[in-house]
Design a protein that fits this description.
The strands form four sheets. Strands 3-2-1-6-5-4 form a six-stranded antiparallel sheet, sandwiched between helices. Strands 8-7-11-10-9 form a five-stranded antiparallel sheet, with helices on both faces. A five-stranded mixed sheet has the order 13-15-16-18-17. It is an alpha+beta fold. The chain is built from 21 helices and 18 strands. Helix 3 crosses helix 6 (about 90-110), helix 6 (about 90-110) packs antiparallel against helix 7 (about 115-155) and helix 19 packs across helix 20 (about 555-575). About 50% of the residues lie in helices and about 20% in strands. The chain has helices at about 1-10, 15-20, 20-35, 45-65, 70-85, 90-110, 115-155, 160-175, 200-205, 215-220, 240-245, 275-325, 340-345, 350-355, 360-365, 370-380, 430-470, 480-510, 520-535, 555-575, 635-645; strands at about 180-185, 190-200, 210, 225-230, 250-255, 260-270, 325-330, 335-340, 385-395, 400-410, 420-425, 520, 540-545, 550-555, 580-585, 590-600, 645-655, 655-665.
Length: about 675
């Protein structure tokens, strides 16, 4: 009775496990975490997730017998541990800690189980551990054998699609329930079947599933696995051949390269509604191997493309270097040649191949090697280019003395690391000779201008003065007086021509027409100039009309009278005989306007756009009308007006004659001001 009463007060093993479920779970988890201290904490113990099911299975086995244990539980545990990368010893350690926690809990409560229950609990735990480790070992061996066969599939360096099909074939040979398998690669915004084995192989290849649509497209978008129990009837399966093949289980995995998705892989069965844990684990291994190969293939393709692009770039660079008429070279920090084109190599009298790896002093034998080295080292020390260095010496290519311009510059990587120094050498021998010839021409032109300006004008002044004195002689008859007038007109015309030539030369030499501004009255200037012209042309009426009171401004008086003289003489030459040439002055707020008009034949329209160009006539010459000037007068007018920041225009029409209008700003406008 005592023994029965004592035994009756003891809990059964099943009751103990159910009553202490939460406490045992917490104690076991703490024990596992302490055991993992200092180890890889990322690999969490799988029993935490499966402990409720394990406790329930142990309790049922204690009541109903060992046959109540479901082998699928141990297989799932083994597959999870194998997938997490645990070894066999680590799996046994987790079960050992579970056993120790149960025993410690019994000791802590000073509680004994019903007779025989502790032994049965130990035997049941041993049974669970043994089967789990057996499943673990069998699955690992199976995976290793499959991986070995996968490695054999990679022999011969097959293309990507062939290798993927070989991997899928090894999967089907190892997992008997798998009837079809395929790899879908991500291309743009769709998954495309690139490798397929088993059912409907030819029909499936090349099919596209948009990302985000169907079960595979959605899984790719969310980067998660998917499982379908009846693919033949599930509307989410968009691949028609899979439905028509009568598939049941369909399982898919995203193929990943780090955080980047490469595509999807799936396997299907026509006989099973679900895949075993070992088959799923095996499929994971195949998918990982496929992902690695796809990523490696893409990397090799990018490397190959980059290598080809680099080779094309180098070939293009070599072609440009060889074809360039400019000498080009690249040297390292020790001033050894890395690259040189044929142009510069010929100047050094050595082949291109002899330069590579040789120093500057090995290749350059001219006296300028010191200057070249100094410039190159200056670039290396300062990191700044050295430009416009003149080199002189014998030219071995042309067999004469030559002159070159050299530029030196640093060569850097995109992140700024100095690799060396580059140089370009340009032959400027012909350019320098052309500069010398041009300077000689300029010197000759300046001497000619000096002759025109001094040696010719002095005799003309003497002729003009003598003609003036001769005209004052009393008793001259009409014929003699006309001869004196012609002399004075001719000398005046020659003086204007010389002045125009001098001004033209100054403007074309780059110095421009000189201007000395003074505060003067436009009416007084024009009145004086017209009086001088009236003496030369006494038979022609010259009129001056003034509108407004304020005709003052800042102008060069000599240049203003020169403009008026050129315009009036031009008007006299083209006006109808005996018709007046009228000069009008009009004062405005900003400008003083000068107009010179005559009556005569209009200027041909085709001449108007080029009327102010040098050496252009204001009328078309014909047999009865010969040009009487060099065609510089209107050009000089335009140049003088532009210097004063004014404007000049012409209007010419039959019946109205021709009018030249000049606008003289009273005060020079600021730079950048556009004249109307």
């Amino acid at each position: 009775m005592d023994e029965h009463a004592c035994g009756g007060s003891r809990p059964s093993a099943a009751e103990f496990l159910r009553a202490n479920h939460d406490v045992l779970l917490a104690e076991w988890q703490q024990a596992v975490m302490q055991d993992l201290a200092g180890k890889d904490s990322i690999r969490q113990p799988w029993l935490i997730d499966h402990m409720p099911a394990l406790f329930a299975a142990l309790a049922d086995a204690m009541e109903s017998g060992p046959e109540a244990l479901d082998e699928r539980l141990e297989a799932a545990h083994a597959a999870a541990r194998l997938d997490a990368g645990f070894n066999l010893g680590e799996v046994a350690r987790e079960y050992a800690l579970l056993r120790r926690c149960i025993l410690h809990r019994l000791e802590a409560r000073e509680q004994r189980l019903r007779p025989g229950d502790l032994t049965r609990l130990e035997e049941t735990l041993d049974r669970v551990v043994t089967r789990t480790m057996t499943f673990f070992w069998d699955m690992k061996q199976r995976i290793l054998q499959t991986l070995d066969r996968m490695s054999e599939a990679a022999l011969g360096d097959p293309d990507m699609e062939t290798l993927l099909e070989r991997l899928l074939t090894r999967l089907m040979e190892s997992a008997l329930t798998v009837d079809t398998a395929a790899v879908m690669l991500l291309e743009d915004d769709a998954l495309v079947v690139r490798a397929s084995v088993g059912l409907s192989t030819d029909e499936v290849k090349g099919l596209r599933v948009p990302v985000g649509q169907g079960v595979s497209g959605r899984a790719a978008l969310e980067r998660r696995p998917f499982f379908i129990r009846s693919a033949a009837t599930d509307p989410r399966v968009l691949v028609g051949p899979l439905r028509r093949a009568g598939l049941r289980a369909l399982y898919g995995l995203p193929l990943m390269d780090g955080e980047r998705i490469l595509g999807m892989a799936y396997m299907g069965s026509r006989t099973a509604f679900a895949f075993s844990d070992s088959d799923v684990l095996l499929f994971h291994s195949v998918a990982e191997r496929a992902s690695a190969h796809i990523a490696q293939t893409e990397l090799h393709a990018r490397e190959h493309e980059a290598r080809q692009e680099a080779e094309r770039s180098l070939a293009l660079l070599d072609s440009l270097l060889d074809a360039s008429p400019v000498g080009i070279a690249f040297l390292d920090p020790d001033l050894r040649y890395l690259r040189i084109n044929g142009t510069l190599a010929r100047l050094n009298s050595r082949p291109v191949e002899d330069h590579r790896g040789r120093t500057l002093h090995d290749m350059v034998r001219s006296r300028s090697v010191g200057s070249i080295e100094h410039s190159l080292r200056q670039v290396l020390e300062t990191g700044r280019p050295v430009q416009d260095v003149l080199l002189e010496g014998p030219d071995p290519v042309r067999g004469r003395a030559g002159i070159w311009r050299a530029d030196y510059f640093p060569v850097r990587t995109p992140d700024g690391v100095l690799l060396g120094v580059g140089s370009t050498v340009v032959d400027i021998t012909d350019h320098k000779r052309a500069e010398g010839a041009l300077q000689q021409a300029i010197d000759f032109r300046e001497e000619l201008i000096a002759v025109l300006g001094h040696d010719l004008r002095n005799p003309l002044h003497a002729v003009n003065a003598s003609a003036f004195m001769l005209g004052k002689t009393p008793g001259l008859d009409a014929t003699a007086r006309r001869s004196v007038d012609r002399i004075r007109k001719a000398t005046a015309r020659m003086t204007r021509m010389i002045n125009d030539i001098l001004d033209f030369a100054r403007s074309r030499l780059g110095g421009g027409i000189p201007v000395t501004r003074q505060h003067v009255n436009m009416e007084e200037l024009c009145q004086g100039m017209l009086e001088e012209l009236q003496v030369v042309y006494p038979e022609r009426p010259l009129e001056l009309e003034v509108q407004g009171d304020d005709l003052w401004g800042d102008w060069d008086p000599d240049r203003v009278t020169q403009v008026l003289g050129n315009l009036v003489v031009n008007a006299l030459q083209h006006a109808t005989n005996d018709t007046p040439v009228v000069t009008t002055l009009r004062g405005e707020a900003v400008d003083v306007v000068m107009e010179v008009r005559n009556k005569g034949d209009p200027i041909p329209p085709e001449l108007l756009p080029r009327l102010f160009d040098p050496f252009k006539q204001s009328s078309a010459p014909n047999e009865g009308h010969k040009p009487r000037s060099l065609g510089l007068g209107l050009y000089i007018v335009s140049e003088i007006v532009q210097v004063h920041r004014g404007s000049v225009r012409v209007e010419s029409a039959a019946g109205d004659g021709t009018t030249f209008t000049v606008r003289w700003p009273r005060v020079p406008p600021p730079k950048g001001y556009l004249t109307p």
